[in-house]
Amino acid sequence: MAIELTVGPVAHGGWCVARHDGRVVFVRHALPGERVLARVTEETTRFLRADAVEILDASPDRVTPPCPFAGPGRCGGCDWQHASLDAQRLLKTDVITEQLKRLAGIEWKGVVEEVPGAPDGLGWRTRVQFAVDREGVLGLRRHRSHDIEPVDACLIAHPEVENVGAEVMNWRNASSVEVIASNTGDQAVVVAPKPRRTVAVPDLDASVAVFVNEGKGHTRVVHGRNHLVERVGDRNFQVTGSGFWQVHPGAAVTLLDAVLEFAAPQPGEWALDLYCGVGLFAAGLAEAVGPEGAVFGVESESAAVRDAERNLRDLPQARFARGRVESALDHFGIERADLVVVDPPRAGLGREVVDRVATLEASRIVYVSCDPATLARDLAWFGDRGYRLADLRAFDAFPMTHHVECVTLLVKDAV
Fold first, then answer.
1. pLDDT tens, position by position, 3-18
2. Average pLDDT, whole number, for the chain?
3. Which residues, 6 or more positions from 288, have their beta carbon under 8 angstroms from its beta carbon?
4. CB-CB neighbours of 4 under 10 Å
5. CB under 8 Å to 273, separation ≥6 — which residues?
6. Is 370 among the residues known to form the active site?
7. Is the confidence at residue 78, as pLDDT, over 70?
């Protein structure tokens, strides 16, 4: 079914909002202010989802998508290829502003900032996970679908990811193939086989490490070493297998600088780094608090904890432990901290962790988030516990997509 719509404001998730016959319509491939012909893709009693398939009156912010696989019914990896980069950042600014106002009652007057390293919004993604069709051809999922769009190149993939050439090889019996390129020149392919199947890995350049993801956190090394090395400033960070690292080449240093600016760690302070990964933020904190201070990192992935210990082995004031933040603070008897840094997954902290972190009575909490909705929800809960938002910076670490990275500073209200 096709309907004509006048498109309204942007919504979280890469949509714009319109109305038709009294119902809300969430529209992709449109921009605010446009008049479009849209094809309905999903219908519920409360709302419709639709793709703009014909632009009747175009926004001045509209551009021709640079990728041939972008568009209605095609690859779902990018949301805003039809918008200029400046417009994309304004759309993300509007989303953050709306989420903070609606969910937390917070007025924010900032703007999403560019992250250095991808001036045209392309060639930035240093980790790309491809799906694999029945014939062994790599592709990317279509939006809200298990269907695969075969691709022979991804324009937002970093050039060193594309240089592996995985898209033009056959990966029969694989369920996914992740290609990784580090900023020190390391390259790796992580293959996840289908259940009870074996993947014949095609011939790759000898320098490319190959891992097989065998499930339950276990990765087997087929070729090369079991980790990649990322460099930030004068420090190397080992990342085992497909462990977490920021995918934009400029994001790690940008976020580290923002975290340290907000945290303002002082010599002798006691800091916590929760969801610490391989120790990026802990390194900056430990150097600032010095040998008379201490940093304690908590991370649920055992490989990341081992990496963090190795990466910061020259900083004895930094210690790490494996555990879920929900229980780790109690398990290790942590009752206070001068400052806390949290960098949770997209689901955010949740009420239990917010309440527990608030009991630490830290004077500053720095919250790094990749989801404005869960961030706003958690900020509202922190507000209930006496913490107010003192500052927020937002970064376009995922150009062409709806995703955005935020760094916030919370301070304890005076009693």
1. 999 999 999 999 999 9
2. 96
3. 260, 265, 266, 267
4. 12
5. 279, 281, 282, 285, 295, 296, 297, 298, 341, 343
6. yes
7. yes
Catalytic residue chosen out of the listed positions 16, 276, 370, 406: 370
Cα 170 off chain centre by: 28
d(CA 274, CA 254) in angstroms, rounded, equals 19
Would you place residue 206 in the very low, low, confident or very high pLDDT band (cuts 50, 70, 90)?
A: confident
pLDDT grade for 109, boundaries at 50, 70 and 90 = very high
Return the percentage of the chain with pLDDT > 90, whole number: 95
Question: HSE of 311 in the Cβ direction (CA atoms, 13 Å)?
Answer: 32
- Tokens read off for 400: 């062409």
Pairing of strands 364-369, 318-322: unpaired
**Is the model's pTM score more than 0.90?**
yes
